[in-house]
Please model this.
Amino acid sequence: MQRGDRMLTLPAEEGARQLVLILLADAETAATRLARATGAEPLHDFRVAVRRLRSLMRALRPWLPHLKRRHERRLGRLARSTNQVRDAQVHLAWLRGPGRQVAIASRRAGYELVVSRLETRLHQGPLATELVERFRRLGTKLTRRLHRSVPAGPDALGVVMAKLLRAQREAFTTRMALVGGAADQEGAHRARIEGKRLRYLLEPTRSWRSAGARRLLARLKDAQTALGELHDAHVLSVELADALSSAPETKTRRPVPQADPRPGIVALAVRLTRHRNAMHAAVERQWRASEMAQLAQDVEAVAAALETATRGET
Model:
């Protein structure tokens, strides 16, 4: 996505319109790749593009009067409809990597049961063609609305973006402070979402005169990666608990004894808990109090640079 300093000086309504149109075009490109199954992870790329579009629409809602909350909700439903497939892909990657070490003879039945359940999920989500069709129908409506004229307000886009960045930094800091520990699934998930929203607000500033924006984005990406792995571990732990509770009882009658899957599932859960705790520790190291103070300084520097560029100062 290419941005220019000139966009900062536009009325917020016009700048917001142009930003969302660019993000809409980015999502259409991702949709085309998904339809053609090109790229390393076309579904992941499509999900990210849709989330980024929805996040900016949400943040800039006051300056996009022709777009409604229902449009954001439709984008949200579209992204969530892929959660099951994406989660299965991520969990299978872990099981075939670190998790595979538990697949010894006495535990193989449990390991294979969990893998089988997740492989089944891969085929239960919407087809790529369906996803792309749904997105394009909505995209056509959004494009039409975004080309309607809007009266200009008093604020320039740079001023608005600076305010949004400061507010979102505060939201992220607050949520991170509320994470209750490695087992706090909801708290970590909310912090991850607020971090994503801050990152999506920062991304358009990369080619603007925003001091440290690229470095700040790299740090937020690292935090998102650790929080994402923590979230994946939480979700997989629920899957393992469900698999354990529904595991078939051991059959010892002849002619063919059935292996007990439960030891393998328990072994996976133990290993996953260690992984989850390690991811939480990584988040704690990255975002202790001193790092949060530095984050506040960095976001303020970016916000101030946006305001300076808006005023045409040097």
User: Anything to note?
Assistant: The radius of gyration is 23 Å. Residues 1-82+126-154 form a domain with the Four Helix Bundle (Hemerythrin (Met), subunit A) fold (CATH 1.20.120).
